[in-house]
Automatic annotation (TrEMBL):
This is Circularly permuted type 2 ATP-grasp protein. Residues 82-458 form the Circularly permuted ATP-grasp type domain. PANTHER family: BLR5612 PROTEIN (PTHR34595), SLL1039 PROTEIN (PTHR34595:SF7). Transmembrane segments: none annotated. InterPro entries: ATP-dep_Glu-Cys_Ligase-2, CP_ATPgrasp_2, UCP005522. It comes from the Bacteria.
Length: 481
């Protein structure tokens, strides 16, 4: 079987960095998987692809797409060809994420206490106070070990020259780690020998590390603190992840109705009576966490939980109010935070970003709109954004009107040509755009980053949008030892 049969349609776009090919040569990191693919027929690979789908189906690995008001549960799309990262590349990314998280954590501590960074004019005061995720109730609240960002998923992209950029910081309730774990388990089934021969570093230790960190945050000095995972419920798009992580850590999965606050302490209802809860890994957004403080209509949270948090009787992971640090309008100031708090130059670069609230920057955006992407500062999932190069004139005009109504809520970035990675689609290898979400855990002993992460892939030909809700999928991420 000649490899040209499967590779003949592999055409790399001009100005695109391809993860597998450098010119016409296969990169060293991909040589092992390239040789394996070359020695297998399309029929063999299609059988492996079908096996992966059956495994995903049998294990109920799903996500929910909200379309036209309906929640549609789907099997998570998975591409069988791994995305491979060399040890040197990973070392660079890992150092950059550690540096970034240290600065962001110091920023959160500062912004909810002395606010030195505002007084010194590094970050504009109005951007902070106009942020909907700046929680005034957090001001002066002491969090365990001064750690706000316990769990993060930093989105990394690669530009046309191979440079790594941070696209956004996810510091509230980042999702996707269960798919990282399940992707590796599926790969072990379909490529067992290839995985071993390439000396790929493990990602399966994530639940153990997370559980260790959660227990270390307990305000009570007990041998076995009670840790729970608080979920909005089975209709949440990431409910599969909530159940998976609770099962792998051996902790209780609870909803708001399963918890109660008495005497500023949180208790879990059990068949044996009330059991005090020490640590809550919450997957409920701030707005719905406590109806006495935030949204009074919420039935997802726990009435009084903020009073228990303020008294120091329960640890909440991630800390409340983190959204002020991953607001896309704040994102542009992260390099300045790194210099201000750490006295270091940023290792990882930001994508150039324009604030639509600034008249000069907005004029530049509108003048170059066909080469820009405009996003809401608190949007997610690939929704509510404009890709200028593919939008119609009417879509552009309508979006301009929305921006002009409230410019503070929008930022713009030049459209970056995301790197491509080989995908097995319709019996052939073809390049598709990818990004990377590594997951970092910040505990009392420091920052631990699982070697790999979730590689999201734009499965639609020509698409730059990797979000699963917009037709994207994922693939296993191999970090070589």
């Amino acid at each position: 079987m000649q490899h040209t049969n499967i590779f003949e349609s592999y055409l790399i776009g001009e100005g695109t960095f391809d993860e597998m090919y450098q010119g016409k040569e296969v990169r060293t990191a991909y040589q092992g998987i390239f040789n394996f693919l070359k020695s297998n027929s399309p029929e063999d690979l299609t059988m492996k692809e079908e096996l992966s789908k059956r495994l995903f189906m049998s294990q109920g690995i799903t996500f929910t797409v909200y379309s036209s008001g309906e929640g549609i549960e789907k099997i998570f799309p998975f591409d069988i060809i791994p995305r491979i990262i060399t040890a040197d590349e990973w070392d660079f990314v890992e150092r950059g994420i550690r540096q970034r998280l240290k600065a962001l954590n110091l920023f959160l501590k500062d912004i909810y206490s002395h606010q030195f960074i505002l007084k010194d004019g590094i970050v504009p005061t109005d951007i902070i106070y106009s942020c909907p995720h700046f929680i005034r109730e957090m001001h002066g609240l002491k969090v365990p070990h001064d750690i706000y960002v316990h769990i993060s998923g930093i989105d990394i992209i690669r530009g046309g020259d191979g440079t790594f950029y941070v696209l956004e910081d996810n510091l509230r309730t980042p999702s996707g780690v269960s798919y990282m774990i399940e992707n590796r388990e599926i790969t072990k089934r379909i490529f067992p020998d290839v995985l071993r021969r390439n000396a790929v570093r493990s990602v399966t230790q994530y639940p153990t590390l997370l559980h260790k960190n959660l227990k270390s945050l307990s305000p009570r000095q007990v041998a076995n603190p009670t840790v729970v995972l608080l979920t909005p419920g089975m209709f949440n798009s990431a409910y599969f992840e909530h159940t998976t992580l609770a099962r792998l850590m051996g902790i209780e999965l609870v909803e708001g109705r399963d918890l109660v606050v008495e005497n500023h302490k949180v208790f879990m209802k059990t068949t044996y009576g009330l059991q005090q809860v020490d640590v809550i890994y919450r997957r409920v957004d701030d707005d719905f966490l406590d109806p006495l403080v935030f949204n009074k209509e919420s039935v997802l949270g726990v009435a009084g939980i903020m009073s228990a948090y303020r008294k120091g009787n329960v640890a909440i992971v991630n800390a409340v109010g983190n959204g002020v640090a991953d607001d896309k309008a704040i994102y542009t100031f992260v390099p300045d935070m790194i210099k201000y708090y750490l006295n270091e130059e940023p290792i990882l670069s930001n994508v150039p970003t324009y604030h639509c609230a600034d008249p000069e920057q907005l004029e530049h955006v509108f003048n170059n709109i066909t080469s820009m992407v405009i996003k809401k500062t608190n949007g997610s999932g690939g929704y509510d954004m404009l890709m200028g190069n593919s939008a119609t004139e009417k879509e552009i005009e309508d979006y301009k009107k929305a921006v002009l109504k409230d410019p503070r809520q929008f930022i713009s970035q030049p459209i970056i040509s995301l790197s491509t990675s080989p995908c097995y689609i319709n019996g052939k290898l073809t390049p598709r755009r990818v990004d990377l979400r590594p997951f970092a855990l910040y505990g009392p002993d420091g920052i631990e980053i699982v070697p790999g992460g979730l590689t999201r892939v734009a499965l639609k030909e020509g698409s730059m949008v990797v979000n699963s809700s917009q037709g994207g999928g994922s693939k296993d991420t191999w970090v070589l030892a």
